[in-house]
Amino acid sequence: MKIIKVGMADLAVVKSPGKLITLGLGSCVGIALYDKRTKIAGLAHIMLPNSKEIKNNSNKAKFADTAIEILLEKMESLGSNKWNIVAKLSGGAQMFSFNTKNDILKIGERNVLASKKKLNQLGIKIISEDTGGNYGRTIELDSSNGDLLVKTIGHGTKVI
After folding, report:
1. What is the mean pLDDT of the chain?
2. Does residue 28 carry a catalytic annotation?
3. CA distance 32 to 132
4. Between the chain's N and C termini, which has fewer beta carbons within 10 Å?
């Protein structure tokens, strides 16, 4: 079985049998896309919500808005159909507490909202999520069945 590690600000796709793994999701969000008909899976590890808010935005995998589009294109190039793809989200934690009302620091929450907004614009249904909280996650996407294994420290392991 092929196991592909997806780094921070990175993305990858795989056909069954294969797994996509990303480590250390804090405020970052893991966006898992899956086509059960073709058993093609895609995973992005995004760091920031919007490429248009940042000058240095050459790495398209770093942002929710551009990473989802690229992931979709890569999956379609392997034979996936956008209308068969569903999404699962994980991460988006608030890793540090700030004594402020400034939403700019709520990067995890903003990443989750931006991911949902982009998926909604593209007509991709989110079927489950494990987001928020104040703890990190490691996730594993199984291309044979679309299961997303979420591992945490102190909050157990679950499949969403």
Report:
1. 94
2. yes
3. 16
4. N
Q: Residue 151's domain spans which residues?
A: 2-159
| Residue 154 binned pLDDT confidence (cut-offs 50, 70, 90) | confident
List of residues 6+ apart from 147 with CB closer than 8 A: 141, 159
CB 90 within 8 A of CB 137: yes
CB 79 within 8 A of CB 12: no
For residue 67, give both structure tokens.
């990473």
Q: What is the pLDDT averaged over residues 16-34?
A: 97
C-beta of residue 27 within 8 angstroms of C-beta of residue 131: no
Q: Above 80 in pLDDT, residue 60?
A: yes
Q: pTM (2 decimals)?
A: 0.95
Q: What is the CATH number of the domain that holds 62?
A: 3.30.1330.200
CA angle 29, 35, 40 (to 5 degrees): 85
Active site residue: 6, 20, 21, 28, which one? Answer: 28
User: Do 33 and 81 form a contact (C-beta atoms < 8 A)?
Assistant: no
